[in-house]
Amino acid sequence: YRDSDGWAQISRWENEWLRQIILTERWEAGCNVIFATLNAVPHILMRGPAAGGEASFSLYRLKAGADREKNATVEREKIWSEPWQYDPSYSLTPLEIGEQLNLVSYRASDGDIQLWRRNPGGGKDVIGYGWGPGYVLMPFKVNGEPYFVAYSQKSGSAEIYHWAADGRRETVRSETWQPGCRLASFELEDSDKTLRSYLLMYGPKGTFKEGKTEYNSKLYVWSKEMIRSDVLLFNRMEDSTVTPFRRGGVPHMMINKPGEAAFEIYFWTISPPSKLKMELLGKGTMPDNLKSNTTIPFEMNKALYFVSYDPRSDSATSGMAVLCTGTISGT
Q1: What percentage of the chain exceeds 90 in pLDDT?
Q2: Contact yes or no for 135/154 (Cβ under 8 A)
């Protein structure tokens, strides 16, 4: 998308060598394009220029279609479009909670975080606010019900909420968790075919202790009563980031240190009697020219791929994206 004139193009990867252009058209100019997934369907939220304390917001659904020659293409279907009050000092990140599109609104100057949702009758509802600097919001499900936690990395304060069927936000409880952590969640079917929800907390060395042994990662499982129980303590690469993804329907995670080429990929399994294990899929090394990029693993046509993107504004390769394959051979 080119905001100067609204020129937009959507391409699809046919395989690792062929990228097929399936849509070229002119959209609204001057917009910020935010991609989101809602009910497993890709959507686009377009925010127009801010003026007079307002900006236009439009939500589109992307659906499969065909052109006049019956070639596969993508159609952009408008769901709604309306002006909202908007302060351009806030950045927006989409977040699906309870099968509804929410927006995490963050202001870097003071760390203010708000949670927005569109009112069915039109307009924007601020359904969560007051979280200060250092808070992160993470959605997850327990027993198929949608929840999210607002967690402060500085204090360890954790506020757990449930989304009711009518869209109300219900407070479950407030707890104090280990501070200084990052969060990740995944679901895994137990040996009795029960789908259980897990919470991974990870930080620097010594974040968690058991006796005299120090660990940097801890895994919890949620009970039906929304109580966390310890499952596993372990050490991963120090000062690394964890990127969860699914492969073959199984939760995996990629672990790598920003700015370094080495990475590891693990997957989670259940062995009787309901014992959770983290198993190494393999270790790898990124090309040197990609090690400072943001790298995200994913599955396509049952194969492992990585998309590597350079988000740095002061880099000679700023905005460049590279698609890579992963050959699984134990290394």
Answers
A1: 44
A2: no
